[in-house]
């Protein structure tokens, strides 16, 4: 296995990780910004006010996108297992 193939394999793994994590992180970021603006305008500085909505939105996103995430990760894993015989040579 050449260095180029190893680099492509690592790049694919990093891309898959970013692809699966991006929707969850982006939704948590948006909710965090909305809550921060709400806190700044109302002068409420409660710590749980930022934590609970983020957790709820992440759970909702997992509920909506969980099937796609599992399918995408499964396809990537099958692709990796199919590459094992070529890596041995």
Overview of the structural elements:
The protein has 89 residues and is an all-alpha fold. It has one domain. It is built from two helices and no strands. It has helices at residues 3-42, 48-88. Helix 1 runs antiparallel to helix 2 (48-88). The longest helix is centred in the last third of the chain and has 41 residues, at 48-88. The radius of gyration is 19 Å and the shape is elongated. It starts with a helix and ends with a helix. The model has no long low-confidence stretch (mean pLDDT 91).
Any chance you could write out the topology, listing elements then pairs?
Blueprint: H1 3-42, H2 48-88
Round the Cα radius of gyration to an integer and report it.
19 Å
Structural class: mainly alpha
pLDDT under 50 segments (min length 5)? Answer: none
Separation of the first and last Cα atoms: 8 Å
Count, helices = 2
Determine the fraction of residues in helical runs and give it as a percent range. over 70%
The SSE order reads HH
Biggest beta sheet summary: none
Report the count of strand segments.
0
> Overall mean pLDDT score?
91
Strand content: under 5%
Oligomer: single chain
Number of domains: 1
Overall outline: elongated
